[in-house]
Amino acid sequence: MPRWLSAFTGEGGRKKRVWLLLGCGAFLCLLVAFWPFGGEETSATPTVSQTQDDFQEQYRQNLQAQVEELLREMDGVGQVKVYLTLSSTQQTQYQSDSTRQTDRTTGGEQSSYQDSAEEQVVLVEDDQGNAKALVSSVTLPKVQGVAVICDGGDSPTVQKNISDAVSALLDIGASQISIARRAG
């Protein structure tokens, strides 16, 4: 029997075995606690600006696709490509609780007012128990301009129909819409 093993079987070996088991258990607990479960997670969590930029680009692309789909159905338009620019980003308004306190002090002929206000964002817990701000409203980005390239872009009647449809759909003026004939 090896010498290191005989230390656990001889006199006082019981205490040594208990300490060895406790040490192994603690090591296993640490190993499990710091082991990366669930595969590789090398990507960092996205920042707020990355998330907003991704949302804004997706929103712009969806609007472009919807306008293209609408215009394809119009008489005389033919093949069409739409390009949009947005003038603002998504605006999120958070729910808040306000507290206002007014103190009035009078002394002789003088009186003074002290007004203080405190506002705190309302937090709610999500499914994972994380605190998140409660959103009260979201304002989507505004369309700044639209360029439409289509087969019928040189016809004044088609240009007017496109301008009217895009203006009504996106709530922008005719001066913000450019229409041209597609090359080819």
3D architecture notes:
There is one protein chain. By secondary structure, this protein is of the alpha+beta class. Helices cover 38% and strands 32% of the residues. It is built from four helices and nine strands. The chain has helices at residues 3-9, 13-34, 48-72, 156-170, and strands at 80-86, 91-94, 96-107, 110-121, 123-125, 131-133, 135-139, 143-150, 177-181. Strands 1-8-9 form a three-stranded mixed sheet, with helices on one face. A two-stranded antiparallel sheet has the order 2-7. Helix 1 crosses helix 2. The mean pLDDT is 78.
Record keyword descriptors for this entry.
three-stranded mixed sheet, alpha+beta, two-stranded antiparallel ribbon, flat, 3 domains, 184 residues, GMP Synthetase, Chain A, domain 3
Assembly state of the chains shown: single chain
How can the largest sheet be summarized? Answer: 3 strands, mixed
Q: How does the helix and strand content classify structurally?
A: alpha+beta
Pick out the low-confidence regions: none
Shape: flat
Average residue-wise pLDDT? 78
Terminal Cα separation, in Å? 91 Å
Q: Give the full name of the CATH homologous superfamily of the largest domain.
A: ANL, C-terminal domain
Give, in order, the helices and strands. Answer: HHHEEEEEEEEHE
CATH architecture of the largest domain: 2-Layer Sandwich
The CATH class of the largest domain, by name, is Alpha Beta
- Largest sheet, order of strands side by side? 1-8-9
Q: What's the tally of helices?
A: 4
- How many strand segments? 9
Count of folded domains: 3
- The radius of gyration computed from the alpha-carbon positions, rounded to a whole number of angstroms, is 34 Å
Strand content: 25-35%
Helix content: 25-40%
**CATH fold-level topology of the largest domain:** GMP Synthetase, Chain A, domain 3
